[in-house]
């Protein structure tokens, strides 16, 4: 599942690894990263794949960056950008760069749809979105076609109970990686977060900004923290919302998410007036029944256990979606049909009504596996099951097995165990954690603030539900706007209720 934070625009790690010089790893680079950049050629935007054309206020451009930043004069790839100019030009501060998470979310596709939430910021900032390398229009990674994707969702049990199911599960993970290597061989070794952060500095220079102003959500917080570590001297005003725990490895992320999604489920059950423990047991029993006997749907497709888990996961991202989850669970339990949960799972998986899948999950997996060095085996995942079932009877087994299925046999070596985000000397960075966040649990925000360093990471707590807080909390939105527009840094430890 790896639900490190799915960016869907309405709303979680054989080939040679990239060899980084010491200067790259420490950010102490006096070469191209600090120099001037060629002006961007902004033009009217075309509609992104599967999307609609942005309005006339938006302009698009492509920035050429090195495929391998260790070879700045070598082959290049294009980074797709989109921009909406500040509406009050006389008061313009500069550019505000966004990343909405995933990894694998297309900023070019998402930002125009989300821009109404940032109207106040757009008065003084140019809003700028980008597709990170390996994503969508920026040399997007592709690993398999729609038919193969559909077959995998139908036939692969993501919580295998037998040796045959386990063997098929592991083989599917290896097949996915082999498909990425076959269909995206050149870019696959170079899609890691460190490279994307260096692309961000190239974007900053191309935009003509002395410092980077940035708004990162979910995985975008890991990307922002990595940028701050590499380029602390160019940190302007950075907001990190729905924060990835930088101290967690791949198993740690799965453990955090088992905790976070269970917490969100219990909050949802309390909101329905149910006892959380009893409601959890009831939901787990429903999943066990569906795993043994998939539910029919009106489309003719079946809802299996793996898809049912994703159907429950998807609406837990936002409290506004809880009524949709209630309807889907009631349908499955009382009518014995799976239309509601299947529709939610399809939305999570990027499947449209015609059976076409987007490639965000391809990019997400490629970026995550390029980052994470760990490659847990099936035996190691199986050993995690008792602990993860204790953390969450509903989500624990899925997430424990996910540690082995995600990067099994991946053709590219991972770069690190955990990302480096320490940023001594950087300007204050606003770090926001929401107490009920399922995908990036609250505790990770405090760890990010601590890892950034004393006087750098400024912690803001949002008491509430959902993945991300800006636009949902009036208090958070006001404090973020004051920080980005006026440079007013909240007191570290501030809480919004």
Task: Kindly describe this structure.
This protein has 497 residues and is of the alpha/beta class. It has two domains: 22-140 and 188-247 and 420-496, 3-Layer(aba) Sandwich (Rossmann fold); 143-182 and 253-417, no CATH class. Helices cover 42% and strands 14% of the residues. It is built from 17 helices and twelve strands. The strands form two sheets. Strands 1-2-3-5-4-6-7-10-11-12 form a ten-stranded mixed beta sheet, with helices on both faces. A two-stranded antiparallel ribbon has the order 8-9. Helix 7 links the parallel strand 6 (212-217) and strand 7. The relative contact order is 0.15. Mean pLDDT is 92; it is low at 6-36.
What is the alpha-carbon Rg in Å?
A: 22 Å
What is the makeup of the main sheet?
10 strands, mixed
* Overall form: globular
Helical fraction: 40-55%
- Number of helical elements: 17
Q: DSSP strand (E) fraction?
A: 5-15%
CATH superfamily of the largest domain: Alpha/Beta hydrolase fold, catalytic domain
Mean pLDDT: 92
Q: What is the string of helix and strand elements? A: HEEEEHHEHHHEHEHHEEHHHHHHEHEHE
Counting structural domains, the number is 2
- Write the CATH architecture name of the largest domain: 3-Layer(aba) Sandwich
> pLDDT below 50 for ≥5 consecutive residues: which ranges?
6-36
CATH fold category name of the largest domain: Rossmann fold
- The top-level CATH class of the largest domain is Alpha Beta
Cα separation of the termini: 31 Å
Secondary-structure-derived class:
alpha/beta
Number of strands: 12
């Amino acid at each position: 599942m790896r639900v490190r934070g799915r960016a869907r625009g309405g709303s979680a790690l054989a080939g040679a690894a990239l060899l980084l010089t010491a200067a790259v790893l420490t950010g102490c680079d006096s070469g191209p990263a600090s120099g001037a950049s060629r002006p961007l050629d902004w033009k009217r935007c075309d509609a992104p794949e599967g999307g609609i054309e942005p309005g006339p206020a938006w302009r698009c451009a492509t920035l050429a960056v090195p495929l391998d930043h260790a070879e700045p004069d070598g082959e290049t790839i294009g980074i797709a950008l989109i921009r909406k100019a500040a509406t009050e030009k006389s008061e313009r501060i500069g550019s505000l760069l966004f990343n909405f998470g995933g990894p694998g979310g297309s900023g070019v596709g998402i930002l125009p749809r989300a821009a109404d939430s940032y109207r106040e910021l757009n008065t003084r900032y140019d809003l700028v979105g980008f597709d990170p390398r390996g994503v969508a229009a920026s040399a997007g990674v592709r690993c398999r076609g729609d038919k193969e994707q559909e077959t995998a969702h139908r036939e692969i049990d993501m919580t295998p109970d037998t040796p045959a199911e386990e063997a098929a599960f592991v083989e599917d993970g290896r097949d996915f990686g082999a498909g990425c290597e076959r269909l995206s061989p050149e870019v696959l070794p170079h899609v890691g977060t460190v490279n994307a952060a260096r692309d961000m500095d190239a974007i900053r220079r191309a935009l003509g900004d002395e410092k980077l102003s940035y708004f990162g959500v979910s995985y975008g917080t890991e990307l922002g923290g990595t940028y701050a570590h590499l380029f602390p001297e160019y940190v302007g005003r950075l907001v990190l919302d729905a924060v990835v725990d930088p101290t967690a490895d791949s198993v740690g992320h799965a453990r955090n998410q088992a905790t976070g999604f269970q917490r969100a489920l219990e909050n949802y059950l309390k909101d329905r007036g149910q006892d959380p423990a009893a409601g959890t047991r009831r939901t787990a029993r429903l999943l066990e029944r569906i795993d043994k006997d998939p539910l029919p749907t009106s489309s003719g497709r079946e809802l299996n256990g793996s898809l049912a888990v994703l159907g429950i996961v998807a609406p837990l991202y936002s409290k506004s979606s809880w009524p949709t989850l209630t309807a889907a669970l009631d349908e499955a339990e009382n009518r014995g049909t799976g239309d509601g949960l299947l529709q939610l799972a399809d939305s999570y998986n990027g499947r449209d009504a015609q059976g076409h899948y987007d490639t965000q999950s391809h990019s997400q997996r490629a970026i995550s596996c390029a980052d994470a060095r760990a490659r847990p085996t099936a035996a190691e995942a199986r050993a995690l099951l008792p602990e993860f079932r204790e953390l969450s009877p509903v989500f624990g087994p899925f997430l424990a097995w996910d540690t082995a299925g995600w990067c099994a046999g991946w053709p590219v070596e991972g770069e690190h165990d955990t990302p480096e985000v320490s940023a001594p000397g950087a300007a204050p960075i606003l770090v926001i954690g929401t107490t009920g966040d399922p995908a990036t649990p609250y505790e990770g925000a405090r760890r990010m603030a601590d890892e950034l360093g004393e006087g750098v990471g400024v912690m803001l707590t949002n008491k509430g539900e959902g993945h991300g807080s800006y636009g949902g909390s009036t208090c958070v939105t006001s404090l973020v706007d004051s920080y980005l527009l006026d440079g007013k840094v909240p007191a570290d430890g501030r809480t919004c209720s």
